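Record 1 of the preview.
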Amino acid sequence: MAEPQVFHRRTPLRRMLDEQGMPWSALADCMIADPADPNGAASRLGIADLTPLPRLGFKGRRTIPAMKARGIEFDGEANRAFRQPDGSLCLVLAASEVVLLSNLAGDGTRLAALEEGYRIEDGERAYPVPRRDGSAWFAVTGRFAPKMFSKLCGVDLRPHRFENLRIAQTSVARLNAVVVRADVGGTIAFHVLADSASAAYFLECLRDGAQEFDGRLIGLSVLRGLETS
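->
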């Protein structure tokens, strides 16, 4: 099997995960840590590094109409996420900013087309931002996830207070972060975006908070399996 270092694009956590003997699976242009879940941690408390998956941002005064003109399905309500037909997510952070997350298949074709098709000459007052390079991306799943976050974050993420597809722009483990609730199948799940330069610190904080609930690292294949559960 190919090693992650042969790909130009890889998670900033590659060395840390390699040292822990994580298995890897290949995507189109990168490898992703893909441990199995024999003990069912995903339904209890699982943490997955999704940093290699494609994502893209757009910012500017006319971002909302520019995205709608490109066929992105959403309304203009801030701090909400909107599922797309292919399973990807559109995160509306403000009237002037959206972030697009790929589906769990890691299909970045549409995002690449959006970025490559942008032309400053069109004068849309919206421009692409390469979020894949600047942010780490984690998924945290399972019924104990809200309790774990209560130790790291001031926002109440319990299901009855923080509904599905809601977004919190907040501090997690003293880092600025975007937290998105986006359940997978019947399992509660959160996507968390934070500065990629602090990815190792952030993962250690998540793992430390998860110890009380026997939380484990899980892989992309496990998350995909939840989609049909």
